[in-house]
Amino acid sequence: MARVKKPKAMNAQEKLTFLLSLVPFLIERERVSVAEVAEHFGVDAEQIREAVRLIAVSGVPGETSTYQYEDLFDIAWDDFEDNDQIVLTNQVALDDSPRFSAREAAALIAGLQYLSALPENADRTAVASLMTKLSRGASAQPSQLAVEDTGSDATLALIRQSVTAGTQLEFDYLGARGTRERRRVDPLRVESMDADWYLRGWDHLREAVRTFRLDRISNPRVSEQPISHSAGDVVLPDTLFESSAEDLVVTVEVTNSAAALLADYIPDGAAREQLEGRVRTTVRVSHYHGLKRLMAGMSGVATVVEPAEARRVVAEWAAAGAARYDGDAS
């Protein structure tokens, strides 16, 4: 008769490590058979049963420093004894730990849904796993949310397809000055600033890295031409926008508390004159349309000083916007 080999006995350190691994394993699976657990940990089924019986009398003492029922783990004993199934019915040690609220978890999950669409987030399996864990670990079931599609989402999907295929992306681009050109780029990175999304890529027309606003891209198409520049080949500057010799120099005054918001537009070495609660300095913009957008986001904290043309353009644009509200009111 063949002799059954007994499993090697664990020492105290090995048993502790085993139990610390077993508890989260059981909690994550909710219901699992003894045989499946034994196969996963590579131990005898009877060792699993003994460990489960030990877990069932373990826990964290309450405020009285004594163990009450609610302070201990518990299992579905009938299922365990009759069906060899393990179901934890009380999880004291983990239930007392801080958790995200249902609203917090829902907000994080919605954000992860959007981030998973960006081309640089290649490991979408990890993102999906994290969303599942957030849903399980919340103090209550998170609301079922989905991020609404926008006009830029179709472009994002094509950018992701272009990156995955390793081919160039073609599109029509409407410049800030109203000119439209067909561009062919190697997509490198998608970034956001305020409420706008931008594509940074190697522009084959300009033979340099360029930044494109997604809402100005139309008729995008993934070409069959392989990319010649990848994100690892090109050193991208830290700032989203770079100055050029054609930029317009504008003097502005901005409150000290808001000066940091203009950091990307203030050229290196620009003079700063400290006034009472404000600072006067210069910014570089590629066109006055960009200046209008910049000032719109800093209403009440920034003022255009010179040149006179810049002041006129911003003032007329603001007046036109105010007139539309006056018309609605009438």
TrEMBL record:
What Pfam families does the record point to?
A: HTH_PafC, WCX, WYL
* The organism's place on the tree of life at top rank: Bacteria
Residue ranges annotated for the WCX domain, each copy included: 248-320
| PafC HTH domain boundaries | 14-136
Stretches assigned to the WYL domain:
155-222
Task: Extract the InterPro entries matched here.
Answer: CBASS_pafABC_assoc_protein, PafC-like, PafC_HTH, WCX_dom, WYL_dom
Q: Under which name does UniProt file this protein? A: WYL domain-containing protein
Organism annotation: Conyzicola nivalis
The taxonomy runs:
Bacteria, Bacillati, Actinomycetota, Actinomycetes, Micrococcales
